């Protein structure tokens, strides 16, 4: 890197949350980034602007993230968003805002772990070659939702790929089922949620064909696993105007 | 083994089924056993008696197995039974028959694979030490029932052990569930059934405690995996009067 | 498919071997293919030509495969080769033959299971994103070589991708090692070979980065798993002049 | 528990190390234990005695642990030891000391995670039923030794059980081996060490027989996983005079 290049100025929203605090430490430790603002509940967003932030990282909550994001786009500040709850309707609204500010970049991602991003990419790629597929996600027992956002997204990507390839339903001769044993269904794909002490965040995608299975498994053992993906997004967003969903397109 | 010992005379019921045929081949190949009768639909049971069978192996169907077994006990022929569908009520009836013929032995087992038997034993043993536990069974997509008989039995053994140890429900904060995602419940234990091409018969028991998990996994890749257990039972049953449920007690 | 399309005429070399026999059954069962010649030790290759074969499938042995292949190319017959032992020098010779017959297609593949082909593709793709990687292959105990050909190829693809991305050695602080515990090394990538009764052919590739791991696993439970890949190659090779190594390029 | 029961008074040696500090927090949080002394490098052991400790927990280093332990036994203080490096010769010396102080209890354990203790017990139990077995341990890449102490101990327990059952070598037809691919050997049992970023401490024991495999897997995700085992040992040691090796005997 040339010495003339100034570090990118980064502000963090949700800076006192567990993920936000980790992001602050990570940005602070990166030579090519400068942490200029740490904002949380009760602080004004103006601190971000006053500090001259070029990029904002948002790990807040679904009820405030849309206001934060709208404000960033209006101010011409790029945004990397890890907050959950981004429905298609919400993504449409973000795109509408960006039409008025075509120079601004926004990255919204359900999962910043590189391994999870690759797992989703590979699942989408493999889907057309196997008649059977099931998604099994495993998390700590304090998780409120089942399945996880990553599992839902994975199942949707698989379903789309199967439809495009003309595959029908997964084969299943079950006649006599204990209610729930065969899991939930996301666009026809069975999804199973395991909850256990000792686990953090894990997912398996099992593909099956004639005489063989292919299994993709991702294990996140701690929050640090999300940081390389956050850094990748922060570095990429300034050169990537418009809306980007998921880290996949940034992996090149 | 001393040379004077005569081979044990064995008859097979359901001899033309896939399991029965494999049992016939296996008995035939064992030096200390002699295959004296192969009986299937339409054949009379008398062939077994005429051939002087000391032990009968039954891999038939739930609708005929009780008649077969009653007849064997009456004739004083020991029996090893792999046919499914043995409810507690059925086991009670077998015990009642055996009270009149105390010299006869009957072994009824849900699974003859040694690895599956050990998996159940270990699951029962580990259950009291972990707050979390889930059972995941994986089978080929032509299987009619979900969960498998082995998974049901495993979950029951775990539930009994947890109750005996005073453990309550497994921890689970799920508030927002896609129907079925958290699996079925067998006496409170979550059980998940995966169905996929390329699979045969597999089961995982996942235990979780503070900062750790313990996983027991059994994979049956073909029917041959059941044969060592069938041989073990055939050899043991003549010296073991009364009813034995599962191969566990025979492993010593 | 239009009704006018004639079935492709296929000859099988090594037709009495275990893989060859399975290929014969599979070709015979496919509507768009016709099995016109089954050749094995002692039979002449002329039978293939007399029968008008357009494509030959070769599952023979390393000592005869080069002669077979040379003859096919000379006769203008396309070839799909699953025989092992194809060193870079052998592949060069095949390419030289094909320069004189540019209309002929040859596919040489180390593994015809679609899942194994995808596992290799994904391993190559993921390699640049993780500092750690190890390959673990698991096979039945009658296998003569360790590691397997697929594991060697996987490790080479990973090593190439790491070099292209400027990654150095995998991190490893081991000071005190029981000889062999850390596995063998293929261009710096640790490779471990497990041999056990009850296994068929399996492979895991484990990638590790900060706080996360990504695992790719392929399980072949029987030879039938190779047949979809053989069919894919037979159908593709007539429209694909020149040499193709591995099924990857055919997956589209 | 009756209200009259006084809490057990506990001292911790190596209290500023990572494990020792976690033990201090854990003892402090337990209602039936009282943390009365925290000792580390440079502190005198007399602090332990002055504080009236009944039990000492030692997570120090191989070079000082024998002196610590000798002193404890002399003073009549029970000890729970997690420090590594206990060879058979060292254990013999501890037993000799205890002969003079028959009322004192000492527990020395290579692994305090309950799941690891059960894994070893189950491996020992299953060993006689399977012709094949391999141990695979997986750890973070900063680990200095390969294989881990737990893997060595597991392999030894398996080897003993196989010998007692009259089993010979594991089957292995390997003729052509890349050096190290087949792992290291501990009394004939193949042991493989995987090192990868993203891992903590994990072990798999794979047993294989005719058509089936049984896999035992333990995953430690953080140091907290050792605390239930430490508590179990502290509570048991006062009623268990003499030397106890491993937590197995305490699990009841």
Automatic annotation (TrEMBL), chains A, B, C, D:
GO terms for molecular function: 4-hydroxy-tetrahydrodipicolinate reductase; NAD binding; NADP binding; oxidoreductase activity, acting on CH or CH2 groups, NAD or NADP as acceptor. The active site is at 139 (proton donor/acceptor), 143 (proton donor). Residues 115-242 form the Dihydrodipicolinate reductase C-terminal domain. One of its GO terms (biological process) is lysine biosynthetic process via diaminopimelate. GO terms for cellular component: cytosol. Its EC number is 1.17.1.8. NAD(+) binds at residues 14-19, 40, 82-84, 109-112. This is 4-hydroxy-tetrahydrodipicolinate reductase. The gene is dapB.
């Amino acid at each position: 890197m040339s010495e003339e290049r100034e570090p990118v100025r980064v502000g963090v929203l949700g800076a006192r949350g567990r993920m936000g605090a980790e992001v602050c430490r990570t940005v602070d430790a990166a030579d090519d980034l400068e942490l200029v603002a740490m904002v949380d509940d009760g602080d004004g967003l103006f601190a971000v602007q006053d500090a001259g932030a070029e990029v904002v990282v948002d790990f807040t909550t679904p009820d405030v993230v849309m206001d934060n994001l709208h404000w960033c786009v209006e101010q011409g500040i790029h945004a990397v968003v890890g907050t959950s709850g981004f429905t298609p309707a919400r993504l449409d609204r973000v795109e509408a805002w960006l039409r008025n500010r075509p120079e601004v970049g926004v990255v919204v991602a359900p999962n910043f772990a590189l391994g999870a991003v690759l797992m989703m990419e590979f699942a989408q790629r493999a889907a057309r070659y196997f008649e059977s597929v099931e998604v099994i996600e495993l998390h700590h027992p304090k998780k409120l939702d089942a399945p996880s956002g990553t599992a839902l997204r994975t199942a949707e990507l698989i379903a789309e790929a199967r439809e495009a390839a003309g595959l029908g339903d997964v084969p299943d001769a079950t006649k006599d089922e204990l209610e729930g044993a065969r899991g939930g269904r996301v666009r026809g794909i069975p999804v199973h949620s395991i909850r256990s002490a000792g686990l953090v965040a894990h997912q398996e995608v099992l593909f099956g064909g004639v005489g063989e299975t292919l299994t993709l498994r991702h294990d996140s053992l701690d929050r640090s696993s999300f940081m390389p993906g956050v850094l990748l997004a922060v570095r990429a967003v300034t050169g990537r105007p418009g809306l980007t969903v998921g880290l996949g397109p940034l992996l090149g």
